Amino acid sequence: MAFIDDIKARAKSDKKTIILPESMDRRTFEAAAEILSEDIADLIIIGKPEEIEANSKGLDVSKATIINPFTYEKTQQYIDGFYELRKAKGMTPEQARESLLGDYMYYACMMVKMGDGDGIVSGACHSTANTLRPSLQIIKTKPGTKLVSAFFVMVIPDCTLGYNGTFVFGDCGLNQNPTSEELAAIAGSSAESFKALVGADPMVAMLSYSTMGSAKHDDVTKVAEATKIAKADYPQFKIDGEIQADAAMVASVGASKAPGSEVAGKANVLIFPNLDAGNIGYKLVQRLAKAEAYGPMCQGIAKPVNDLSRGCSSKDIAGVIAITAVQAQMQG
Questions:
Q1: Which CATH number describes the domain made up of 3-140+301-331?
Q2: Tens digit of each residue's pLDDT (9 = 90 or more) over 197-211
Q3: Fold of the domain spanning 149-288
């Protein structure tokens, strides 16, 4: 079964409620129509009637719950709750109201915080910062989280590399220039996400332009140190590096450049040394290999909140909604 078909089947087995705050974007409604027609998740769409009507023309989203923040009976509870959370930071009740009614992402986060939704998908027309800032202020990080990071699930057609063409790429959406300790945390979280979503054993490659000391530079040292930390902190996973991408994925190259490595030639989780490399890498694979790219998915937040690339399609959004529902099942 294809990755996304398996995810949808898992989502349908125990339906969760996913909130969509971007009622100003037609792709939201196209994705919602697909999710609802396949009965994958229950959906809440936040927006004013005129926004809903303008952007959903010709689409059947009748099974979604539509919430107008300006008239909904629980809005004042959400405002009061947000004020209580942030008053120590100097927030006033008026500022709390302005935030929730002026930015639906804040409203969505308060809904999840107060148990009225299981997860959120946003980012089709907002930046990653606009998606994550409210999440971290309101929902906060998962206990024990060292670092909130982002990953993509990449599904590459007609590909025998990775796990039947399926990879996790991290971090491709959030941390600009992670330290060795942060890279190690990204590796551990990404391995856990791969195991949970794909259901196979993660083989984690810490990517570099160097393989096992073939080049010398501070950037190489950073990845080599990250590998040592990750191996110590996550002994349950197979992690190796620093390693070049071809040696990580192609068995013959791995055998030549990194003989004896348990990961070389078998990697299905690729950890990029910085956000430039990660963002460029996933977009090249998505566009040149016609890969499905689901994300950036967030890891480390107390409830599933997932970002989207602003270049995403409605099918991409539908896939991320299904993945978010599965993550909500796992978090309970």
A1: 3.40.50.10950
A2: 999 999 999 999 999
A3: Rossmann fold (3.40.50)
